[in-house]
Amino acid sequence: MIREAISEEALSRAKEIIEDVRKGGAVAALEWSQRLDGLKPPELLIEPSERPEADSSVVEAALAAARSLERLYSRARPADVVDFYEGILRYIVWRPIERLAIYVPARYISTLVMLAVPAKIAGVSKLYALTPPKGLTPEFLTVAAKLGINAVVGVGGAHGLAYVAFHLGVDMLAGPGGLYVQAAKYVLSRYVGIDGIEGPTELVVYAEGVDPRRAVAGALAQLEHGPTSFAVVISRDYQLLREVEEIYRREKTSSMGPLSTKSVGSIEEAAREIDSIAPEHLEVWGLPELAQMVRNVGAVSVNGPSPLVDYVAGISHVLPTGGSARWRGIITPSTFMKPIGVAWTLADSPLRKHAIRLAEYEGFRLHADSLR
């Protein structure tokens, strides 16, 4: 299933803003903030610090999520590999990127956690957090300080991303955001790395032998993200699906995305259906073995609602959308690292003659000469 995350109109608008900020720097970024958000911060770069007026319960909840994430992700940092073969010492070493900017939609303090923790575990040395001016709450600045964010950029959108890309010299941009944020990431990917293009929220629920209200609760939670989000409930139980549809009709609002249902005849058919959708989120109720059968999915919640992943389960909620779960997965420390290969010749290798033959076959005479 192919789903568009950005539009031509958004790309055109993003290009205009990015070019203006590339030329105009901080002044242009602040002007776009005033124009698009109706306000701008007193300064563009803000040093995060603990604010006494911050709601301590919100701060503690965010830090509890960070501890949960750190416990799992500290074990997910990729390890170096060393091997000696035919006179050559080969190794692959993992190195963190140096400068990363993470995008945090306004008031999404959980997203700050979900990106900052794996970045710090990776070893990123300079970490910026961008958020629109209305996201600059005492809670956000306090949590940013505790997570080791070096500086907060107090504007969002394409203008904020362009500013950090061209004027702070970051190596990579990461994080979710709306249509224009993703369009800006796409445009800026010519100059810096990106984690991916994140589209609207997606959820598939497989339910069997559970209360239909439980099956639909997680779907309604994800559809709360807006009318472009969507959910699909799959089951072998036809009656359960009819009850899910009735609950959705009663509970839906005009700001919610659509929910559809799909009846399947077997667990294998359910797995194939899920893999064809390649959803961001999957909830599995009553049939835990299904979680081991699917290949194309971002994060799976078994016997629990997907918002558990959104907040405290210890898995980053920045997930592949738009069907991209077919080729990429969740955010981990390796997202913010790069593998470097090293070959150290310690003795004349018997492999050399094969290298010469391949070079000759491919028409690279000087390659072969250098090997001789």
TrEMBL record:
PROSITE patterns: HISOL_DEHYDROGENASE. It comes from the Archaea. NCBIfam families: hisD (TIGR00069). One of its GO terms (biological process) is L-histidine biosynthetic process. This is Histidinol dehydrogenase. It comes from Thermoproteus tenax (strain ATCC 35583 / DSM 2078 / JCM 9277 / NBRC 100435 / Kra 1). Coiled coil: none annotated. Belongs to the histidinol dehydrogenase family. Its cofactor is Zn(2+). One of its GO terms (molecular function) is histidinol dehydrogenase activity. InterPro entries: Ald_DH/histidinol_DH, Histidinol_DH_CS, Hstdl_DH. GO terms for cellular component: cytoplasm. PANTHER family: HISTIDINE BIOSYNTHESIS TRIFUNCTIONAL PROTEIN, HISTIDINOL DEHYDROGENASE HDH. The lineage of its organism: Archaea, Thermoproteota, Thermoprotei, Thermoproteales, Thermoproteaceae. Keywords: Metal-binding, Oxidoreductase, Zinc.
